[in-house]
Here is the input.
Amino acid sequence: MDLNIKIAVLDQIYRIYDEFVSKLDIACKKYCAGCCTRNVTLTTLEGYLIATHMISYGKTGLFENIERAIPKRRFQPQTTTNRLADLCMKGEDPPVEENQSLNGSCPLLKDNLCPIYQVRPFGCRCFVSKHDCRKQGYAEVDPFIITVNNLFLQFIEHVDSGGFSGNLVDVLKCMGSKKNRHNYKSNTLDNPYTGLIPNLKITVLMIPPEHRVKIKPILKDLQSIR
Here is the structure.
């Protein structure tokens, strides 16, 4: 798929999700950066969009923040959402993921504001807690919203099948390279960096029986994207 088409599809996916979130009663507001850790994951498609945004809007200094974050401990996923769904369908155990969810703030943050908010990845958009997790010490998300989030993660990965996923630091480290961006645009990007894992197409949707009816309108919207 042509990169411009991928970006257009990603934009439509974001719009559908933003419309869904606009109807929720959530605590996440401006200057609330309690969930903005350096453990966010994203696809290379999202990373390409963020990197080109940073370059186009004179924010290349943020790449220095990424470089400084490289030595720091962070969550580096062992499997993608679609791979997890495939393993569950086959009755196989997924790899054990190391939980480092409390290890530091996002390296891109400035004064608790996101300088790439316009193009923030889905991993940031789906932080939709019912209460202020800074006060409670944890986020609270309705089980149905978790199902919706997983569905969107599957579709975004599907669009970027052939690309990679990983921690925000690792993906932006990769996309900070002009050569890697060129190779990604031409569909010739091999896995260039430790910590990235290959994306897969959807083989099965992770929708539990109790949510299959309620999620139909959202699924229909996603499937209607062209």
Q: What stands out?
A: The chain is about 45% helix and 5% strand.
